[in-house]
Design a protein that fits this description.
- 17% of the residues lie in helices and 43% in strands.
- It is an alpha+beta fold and 225 residues long.
- A hairpin with a 5-residue loop joins strand 2 and strand 3.
């Protein structure tokens, strides 16, 4: 599988922010809401995050589950986000993959293949979970809030992409205050990607250079930004 397809698969099954319901129980948090909240409350939580959190770093654990609750894959790594439109996802285990965007270019570095795919940063990324967390556009232009509730000491917001052709059908974000702690993404096959964030550091001063990829010597480069 080439690195571009690998990233699209991760994005489809994501989770993206990920950031995930109760992974040990392997149940969707949306299935057991403890307290309903209005769409306006959920939107207020989401907009508080978008307004107040300008950068974020975290460790993540990402799990891919089938529709019948079989665990297919577990991955771990780190992420950094900075508004607008900059992010860096580094997958460490079981395989190394680095996905970097600076708002103009998108780099996908498959360490095992020693290959970098570079492409323009375009609308394909616009309705992705990564852009939901780091984007500069009004989230309501890309996503619709369809459900909100409180459960497991988190405020949950469920969104669906407004545009057709997205790689996923819904994303569920669990907030602690204005910080996202879990994400759940459902794709067209009802596979669920759950991502849990840990060791969050909000609004750290992140250098713009972090969101550039310095291609190592000897690595093949495919495409151009």
């Amino acid at each position: 599988m080439d690195s571009g397809k690998c990233w699209r698969r991760r994005l489809r099954s994501l989770i993206s922010f990920v950031l995930l319901a109760s992974c040990a129980a392997a149940h969707n948090a949306a299935a057991q809401p403890a307290e309903s909240r209005t769409a306006e409350q959920g939107l207020a939580t989401l907009e508080a995050f978008l307004n107040e959190v300008q950068s974020l770093t975290a460790d993540f654990k990402q799990e891919l589950w089938t529709a019948d609750q079989r665990l297919l894959q577990t991955e771990t790594g780190t992420l950094s986000l900075k508004r607008p439109n900059r992010f860096r996802w580094t997958y460490v285990e079981p395989t190394e993959l680095v996905v970097v965007a600076n708002g103009k270019q998108l780099w996908i570095y498959d360490v095992e293949l020693a290959q970098v795919t570079v492409s323009p940063f375009d609308d394909t990324v616009g309705a992705s979970p990564a852009m939901l967390l780091s984007g500069g556009r009004d989230v309501r232009e890309e996503f619709e809030v369809v459900q909100t509730y409180t459960a497991e000491a988190l405020d949950w917001v469920k969104l669906e992409p407004r545009a057709g052709g997205s790689d996923f059908v819904s994303v569920l974000i669990g907030f602690s205050g204005t910080s996202p702690r879990r994400l759940e993404l459902v794709d067209g096959l009802n596979q669920v990607t759950r991502i849990e964030l840990d060791n969050l550091d909000v609004n750290r001063d992140l250098a713009d250079e972090l969101f550039e990829l310095d291609v190592p010597a000897g690595v093949d480069v495919i495409g151009e930004g």
